[in-house]
């Protein structure tokens, strides 16, 4: 599978979201961080903003829900126009039912793990998902330092995906930059979220291209990618 780069609008100017979305044309997805001030200590945006953004850009929306009561809210983000919806397993009462509901409504279903949440208890759920998100910072804020202690979890998850012959994407989010993206690709990630590394750059579209080149080069050399 080709490498995908998803700029996070958390680091964009919220007063100019449509323009900021256009500034990263060439990106695979636009990563939209929804925070409710309960699941994480920060508040960002919700359904009305996602609805407007979906109308304002042709880039598909990858909504990362850092909110409680995921079972209640996640399906509504599909209706609002998200093409991929990620819920946190820590906030979902019935993750299998929720993933099926997201898929039935026509979006890709994705599940996220906080840094302290292990992958192993969820091995049997993987076929229900289109993507798994491994957080490489504590969720809540952009611009934090990459947690390299998450690299073994990325490796173990890639092994599980391959063991079951699954097609699901493995996304990393938090502190992904020119200096950390290669380690993530080498460990087995194939979808990369980058907020400050893209929107903090002078030329965000060029930053996306540079990240893609680094990730592609590292993936080509990675042992897990042989035969993919
Ligand atoms: O989910 C997130 C934070 O909870 C963001 O997507 C993430 O932090 C992106 O920002 P940066 O690349 O600056 O770390
Ligand atoms: Fe995110």
Total number of beta strands: 8
* Helix count from the secondary structure assignment: 8
Strand content: 15-25%
Distance between the termini: 7 Å
Order the strands across the largest sheet as they lie in space: 1-8-7-6-5-4-3-2
* Major sheet size, sense and barrel closure: 8 strands, parallel
| Hetero compounds | ribulose-5-phosphate, fe (ii) ion
Structural class by secondary-structure content:
alpha/beta
Run of helices and strands = EHEHEHEHEEHEHEHH
Overall geometric form: globular
Radius of gyration: 16 Å
**Level of helix content?**
25-40%
Name the average pLDDT. Answer: 97
Low-pLDDT sequence parts: none
What is the fold's blueprint, element by element?
Blueprint lengths: L3 E4 L9 H6 L7 E6 L11 H10 L4 E6 L3 H10 L4 E5 L6 H10 L3 E6 L17 E5 L15 H13 L5 E5 L7 H7 L3 E4 L1 H4 L4 H18 L7
Parallel strand pairs: 1-8, 2-3, 3-4, 4-5, 5-6, 6-7, 7-8
Helix pairs in contact: 3-4, 6-8
This protein binds ribulose-5-phosphate (5RP) and fe (ii) ion.
InterPro entries: Aldolase_TIM (IPR013785), Ribul_P_3_epim (IPR026019), Ribul_P_3_epim-like (IPR000056), RibuloseP-bd_barrel (IPR011060)
Enzyme class: isomerase
Function: Catalyzes the reversible epimerization of D-ribulose 5-phosphate to D-xylulose 5-phosphate.
